[in-house]
Amino acid sequence: MDIRSLLDGLLELTFVGSFTRVGFVVRRILFGWNTPADGSMTGKTVLITGPTSGLGRATADALASAGARLILVGRSEERLARVRDELVAEHGEDRFRIVVADMGLLDSVRAAVATILEEEPRLDVLVDNAGAIFPDRRETADGIEATLATMVVGPFVLIDGLRPLLERTGGARVIAITSGGMYWQTLPLDDLDYEEGPFSGPRAYARAKRAQTALMREWARRLAAVGSDLTINAMHPGWSDTPGLAETLPAFYRLMGPVLRSPAEGADTIVWLATDPRAGGLSGGLFLDRRPRPFDRAPLTRLSAADRRRLWDLVVERTGAADPLPDRVHQLDGPG
Ligand SMILES: NC(=O)c1ccc[n+]([C@@H]2O[C@H](COP(=O)([O-])OP(=O)(O)OC[C@H]3O[C@@H](n4cnc5c(N)ncnc54)[C@H](OP(=O)(O)O)[C@@H]3O)[C@@H](O)[C@H]2O)c1
User: What separation in Å is there between the alpha carbon of 188 and the centre of ligand 1?
Assistant: First the structure.
């Protein structure tokens, strides 16, 4: 192991050092990161959910600077239009399209998919970024707990629906934004909709992020099994100074304020996974600061390969649609 990887690994063990701005700055210096060259994404189309704020907004900016055409997906037409206008003003041309969809409502996601499939000739990158913490338990019109619907089932329908376009484009990449908070939560597969016990928004969020990350592994495995060249990875952004963090975890936000990453720093690995040639063939990983990271920190929170297959089935069941990639190769998994 080289000295840089050793230092990176030590930083990762500290959690706080790794998740804050310290981790970002140290690793940027250690590994001499570049930003994507202007124009390097020209001719490519990137879809971003939740581009109106925080990390999604920073991702939109960086990818627009690299020349990408953007499909901005969000639930408020007004907020999306404001972002599009800002991007047009910043980048001097209109290659930004808005599509309204609430990621927690399956009909809304399906309508967005239908529009995109009908009107877009290509899709190179899909950034599954939209996310939220809900203060109280509520169910969506589909009867799914809202956190699970917004960050797990809705994105599943989006990825599944857009898969034909992504695969037709060739070499396409899906990037899911998860959270380091998932490290401290188990995922009770018998209670995915959080019907048991007192509801906690942050716990529901961490469970949904664990489910989202596990599903990305499962997508990657099943896509590889059918010979698809579509790659899927999860990343977590550490702790970043965004409106979402400030609103939903105000005490934590105040405590960590000076060492939080900027939105652009938090979004750096999203941009790297979307643009860097070296990230092209990677699939089924979890990344922080441009490097693969472990899926688990504590044995008790670990989801086995069988758990991940079961999770897939439970999510498919909630979509009310047929399984898009029935499992035919689970005997090849090994014990992991
Ligand atoms: N900030 C951090 O430290 C941190 C750490 C770990 C993970 N993350 C993850 O990073 C992602 C971005 O978070 P952020 O911190 O940038 O939060 P943010 O500032 O609150 O932005 C969240 C974005 O998601 C959109 N969104 C929320 N619910 C939606 C729905 N039902 N349908 C469509 N769009 C929806 C919001 O759109 P509206 O304008 O409509 O509200 C907004 O654009 C999330 O997945 C979050 O869990 C963030």
Answer: 24
Catalytic residue at 205? yes
Distance CA 72, CA 92 (A): 17
Residues constituting the chain: 336
Give the residue extent of every domain in the chain.
1-33, 35-324
> Taking Cα atoms as reference points, which of 47, 44, 304 lies closest to residue 163?
47
Task: Identify the H or E element spanning 74.
Answer: strand 69-74
Spatial distance between the Cα atoms of 217 and 233, rounded to a whole number of angstroms = 7
Q: Which CATH class is domain 35-324?
A: alpha beta
For 34-73, the pLDDT digits (tens) are 999 888 999 999 999 999 999 999 999 999 999 999 999 9
Query: Ligand 1: which residue has its CA nearest to atom 36?
Result: 50
Q: State pTM to two decimals.
A: 0.97
Q: Which residues form ligand 1's pocket by a CB distance below 6 Å?
A: 49-50, 52-56, 74-76, 79, 102-104, 129-132, 150, 177, 179, 236-237, 239-240, 242-245, 266
CB 59 within 8 A of CB 96: no
Tokens describing residue 190: 């018998």
Q: Are 314 and 293 in contact (CB under 8 A)?
A: no
pLDDT digits (tens, 9 = 90+) for 167-223: 999 999 999 999 999 999 999 999 999 999 999 999 999 999 999 999 999 999 999
